[in-house]
Amino acid sequence: MAMRSQIYEWTNLSTSGSNSSIRMTTDPFEKTVSGDKKTDIFIGGIGTNITKPAETTATQFVVIEDIATSAHANSAVQVRINTTDYFQNPDITDQVGVPGLASPYPRGTASDGGVSPTAGDNVLPSFALTPEIYVLPGQTYSVLYTANQSTAITAYGSANTTAVACFVKYTLYDGPDSLIANRLLEMGITVNPSNVDWYKRSLLEQQSMATATANGGVA
To answer: How far is CA 190 from CA 63, 69, 124, 199, in A?
Structure first.
């Protein structure tokens, strides 16, 4: 499949005997996340991880469409392309990214992290990732979680309220669709599935017109 929408969920949960795991397990335990330190949700060694850095090949193009994180623990989420953080202060200095209070995951969660949301405190998103983030062929990218506080999120038994999470939604364009995505970018057109399909139809129409002209007006 050349074009597919994907999601990735990270939590600081793992088995009691390991700091990270590839898959969510039954009866997981919260793992400590250091305060004011950016943790790579893909390969950061805490919670649910994958086995290699997120990257695009020479024939891939990724569009990150949505990011969100826990509304409690002063959580924030940042996107890094190669070595450059996407969200920065106006003076180009570093920042932790989008706060969970602006883009909560799950939506409607409580800002205090309690098991039962505080009355009237069902946090809904006020942030939208517009424009979306493009990861060009050959680039690496990271999504970074930060608990923006001086104390760590303490690890202790399962089913407690120290669990935090991040969510990423993106579309992967591969093969010919990656070439089309790059062409749309050159044309200044937003890269999304509808525009990729539009470009394909345009190419087919041009091919049909060229064939008809070559055949004396008969398609």
So the answer is: 10, 25, 26, 12
